[in-house]
Give the backbone structure.
Amino acid sequence: MKIYRGKYIADLYKDILTDLLNNPEYISNPRDMEVKEILNCIIEVQEPNMNLYKNKIRGSKEKYIAAELLWYFSGTRNVDFIEKYAKMWTNLKNDKDEVNSAYGYLIFKEENKDKYTQYEWAITSLKKDKDSRQAFMHFNKPDHQYDDNKDQVCTLVALFHIREKKLHMTLNMRSNDIILGFMTDYVFFNILHQQAYLHLKEYYPELQIGTYTHTSHSMHLYARDYEKVEQMLKEPFEPYSTPLLNKSIINEDGLFKTTYFNIFHPVIKDKEIKFDRTGNSIIDWCLNNIKTK
C-alpha cells in the first residue's frame, strides 16, 4: 500500500508514475501482460477541480476526455459515438453495440426498486441528512460477473460526505491503467463531484468543494508504456483544468437538463451534434474540443 496526498492531481500523478516505473510493489502478469503494480494505492487530492495536466510527451487528451464526458453524461450504453474516439470500446462492446462500463448509464439511468437512480440515491441521502453515510453509488454490480465478460467494470463504488461544510468525494476502483485510464476517468469523476456540489448547494448554501480520495486496488503500468513514462518523467507536469461547472448538466434524478443535453439521447449520433453555445461551461468546452481538435 502507498498513500499519496497533495494539492493537485498533476503532481500526484507524476509521483505515482515515478514509483510505478522505479519502485513498484510488484511485477505481475495478468493475461500474460507484464505490469508494474502498486496494490491499494490511495490518493487524496486537496484541490480536485484542477483536473488536467500538461506534459510535452503525453498530457491530458482533451479531445477524448471531451467525447467521454459527453458520452457518460448522455446516459447511454451504446458505443456508436465513443468508439470513434477510442478503439477499445469497439473491442469491449457486445452484439448490441453496448458496453458495461458506461458510467453514466449505471448511475443516471438504472433504477432500484424504489425508482431511485444511483445518483439520485446519493443526492437524496444527503438532502435528508447532511451527515449521512449512505450517499453511495454502485458501478460494478453482480450482473457484471459472468464468464467471458470482455468489459468488467473497473469502478466499484463512489461516496459523498458532507463534513464541516465541505462536500468530499471518495472513489474505490478494483483496477487502474495509469496511462490509458486513470487521468481520463479522473476528469469525469471530478465533474461528477462538481455536479453533486451544485445540486447540494441549493440545500446547503455555505457548502464548498472538499477533497477527492481515490483508492485503486491495482494501480499498474503496462510494460508497453515503460519507455514512454521514462520520457514523460523528464518533463514537467503542469496542472490546469476544464472550466468549472457553472450549470447543472443533469437533474437530481439523473435525467437530462434538456435545454443542454437532449441532443445526445438516447444514442449520440454525429448528425445530431450541434455546436451552438449552450451556456453550460463544460458542455461548451466538450463541443469545442471534439469540433476543433
